[in-house]
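not sure who needs this but someone in the group chat was asking about Uracil DNA glycosylase superfamily protein from Paraburkholderia terricola so here u go. i didnt clean anything up, its just raw.
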Amino acid sequence: MNKDSCSSLDSLLADVRACRACAPHLPLGPRPIVRAGADARILIVGQAPGARVHASGIPWDDASGDRLRNWLGIDAATFHDESRFAIIPMGFCYPGRGNGGDKPPRRECAQLWLDSLLGKLPDIQLTLLIGQYAQRHFLGASQGFAD
Ligand code: SF4
């Protein structure tokens, strides 16, 4: 990966992290949690951060992350190595609680950012779609997002 590609991705990630597009709908405010290095080979697309991940700012910093790392057979340091793993959820900010659990990911992230981010990750060879929103977006009809 050349230096221009890295700086281009870094610039885009800076824009993503400054995003406030759906701030009025986010009970704890915007805190986009996305990680990616331009050389990453594995892409993990999950749902949206929970409250714990919102607080820490570290993706998959919860019990589901422990299960995922156990399933992958890797430790936390490897999982959080951006040069190996890009971690891009369908919704980047914690969406708040709804009936029976966290609300669905905000649809704005995919509309505003997802394709641009994926376009700057040319070395991805394996994509893990975790949860119904990622699977619907990538494999089937896009539906079920928060309004
Ligand atoms: S949820 Fe996505 S679109 Fe909304 S403020 Fe966060 S990054 Fe921006």
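also The first strand starts at residue 42 and ends at 45. if thats useful
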